[in-house]
Design brief:
Elements lengths: L2 E7 L5 H12 L5 E7 L11 H9 L16 H4 L2 E4 L2 H8 L5 H5 L1 E3 L19 H25 L3
Parallel strand pairs: 1-2, 1-3, 3-4
Helix pairs in contact: 1-6, 2-6
Bound molecules: 4-nitrophenyl phosphate.
Length: 155
């Protein structure tokens, strides 16, 4: 059975689609499934923000086929690791946890990067630069996650 990893932000159109695409590009898809979701339902069914699609494409990653969905408590059953982009996402996810085992699956993505930051900032209301910075931050965190997953099947 595949190890399943879920990336979660607020809208599931800017940060978590990038996180899904970046991590998926670094792991063996036969062993690891990567998905993403948002804690809010503003954009359900929509493709990622064009600025996220563009920055991913610049780095050789195609996220254009992803479609937005909302995080649900059933995701705790389906996924082994749930990475939140910021504190607010983390709190919203944990609020839906039904038990300790659910809670233990949730981590802040940036805890996996060794750069002293704990949150991936929301780039939605900013310029293109913000999307580049967000890409770099997510990539920094996804590198050790992918290494762990590829070596041990653990995030
Ligand atoms: P994301 O960014 O959480 O990284 O997908 C946002 C996208 C949309 C909105 C907020 C944040 N929004 O308010 O519509």
């Amino acid at each position: 059975m595949k190890t399943k990893v879920l990336m979660v932000c607020l809208g599931n159109i800017c940060r978590s689609p990038l996180a899904e695409g970046i991590l998926a590009s670094k792991v063996d898809g036969n062993m690891i499934l990567v998905d993403s979701a948002g804690t809010a339902g503003y954009h359900i069914g929509n493709p990622p923000d064009p600025r996220s699609v563009a920055v991913a494409r610049k780095h050789g990653i195609d996220i254009s086929q992803q479609r937005c969905r909302k995080f649900s408590s059933s995701d705790f059953e389906d996924f082994d690791f749930i990475y939140a982009m910021d504190d607010s996402n983390y709190n919203n996810i944990v609020a839906l946890a039904r038990n300790e085992s659910d809670r233990n699956k949730v981590q802040l993505l940036m805890k996996m990067a060794d750069n002293g930051l704990s949150e991936v900032p929301d780039p939605y209301y900013g310029g293109e630069d913000g999307f580049e910075q967000v890409f770099d931050m997510i990539e920094l965190a996804c590198t050790p996650i992918a290494q762990n997953l590829n070596q041990h099947g653990r995030g």
